Amino acid sequence: MKKTLMVAALTGVFATAAHAQSSVTLYGLIDAGITYTNNQQGHSNWKATSGSVNGSRWGLRGSEDLGGGLKAIFTLENGFNIMNGTNGQGGREFGRQAFVGLSSNQFGAVTLGRQYDSVVDFLGPLALTGTQYGGTQFAHPFDNDNLDNTFRVNNSVKYTSANYAGFKLGAMYGFSNEAGGFADNRAYSVGASYNYGPLNVAAAYMQLNNVGSATNNVSGAVTTDNTPFVASRQRIFGGGINYAFGPATVGFVFTQTMLDNATQLTNVGSQGAGNIALNGDSMRFTNYEVNGRYNLTPALSIAGAYTYTDSRIEGEKPKFHQFSLQTAYALSKRTDVYLQGEYQHMTDQEGLPVGAVINGVGMSSNGNQVSATVGMRHRF
């Protein structure tokens, strides 16, 4: 009897210890607002919006301690529209992220699944469109550099290093999964960052091959319902710097997106004009963003950015000037309200079927667009 009681007691101790070494966390964010646009395809518009700053989501994140500084990790993250309850990212159950892997305190992490690329991971946090201080509507035209993560990469294997005295690096490869077509709809990226006190610098590069077209490999790295472009090759590279002093942070981000044999531009991230056919020429977007944010009080913040985009579309040279401003007030650690606005002015479109386009709002019928949103975010 005593032995039975002892075994039962020890079993309970070991079960408790094993349980303490594993964890699963439910988390999420809900962003709901009302947006006014002065010109959406020729009309003013008031509409209820979901994710004007940060996409609404819920997810599960877990880890298991395997000993020796090694852990098994996973993330399953769903994106949804709070206004109608539907799934985002083409209706996927876990469209934002879905991966599993191993993480080492000494060497970093290797993960497999549907994941963010290195441009999003390393350069995104330095641009306001990649943060809580601007998000969706602060994106560069058409989110051409993916800093607002319009698309994720399927079939991907990713390595992210540990933090070595402020230095981190990473790389990702997205398989085409096509027999006899290894490069047909594949993606790869690399990135690095360095943090030294108030200074943050980062750089990243990404290349996509044969993505976007419904006639191409639809089971590859990036699918048609994600990317705003159809081209034989898309290359994105850039760098950025942020510097914090006291309650203020200022930054600069440069990116360039180059497309070969571009045949279609899709207003994916803009809920608007649909597909725009192109003649197969090369296309280019060069973005310069100057940004800053300031905490007026522990609860009240203000942030703003100016982005100049010099582009080449169908032999023409349209230019985009975007001014963006946000203020947010924290009601608690998990809930805040915000007010933000954007103005975009486009010049030299020369008859192109492209107007001013504030991300998440819709394309205008001319070269000017104004948008304003009042909203609320709750995190859990």
TrEMBL record:
GO terms for molecular function: porin activity. Its main location: membrane. Keywords: Cell outer membrane, Ion transport, Membrane, Porin, Signal, Transmembrane, Transmembrane beta strand, Transport. It comes from the Bacteria. It is a multi-pass membrane protein. Residues 1-20 form the signal peptide. One of its GO terms (biological process) is monoatomic ion transmembrane transport. Residues 8-345 form the Porin domain. One of its GO terms (cellular component) is cell outer membrane. It is found in: Cell outer membrane. InterPro entries: Gram-neg_bact_OMP (IPR050298), Gram_neg_porin_domain (IPR033900), Porin_dom_sf (IPR023614), Porin_Gram-ve (IPR001702). Homotrimer. This is Outer membrane porin.
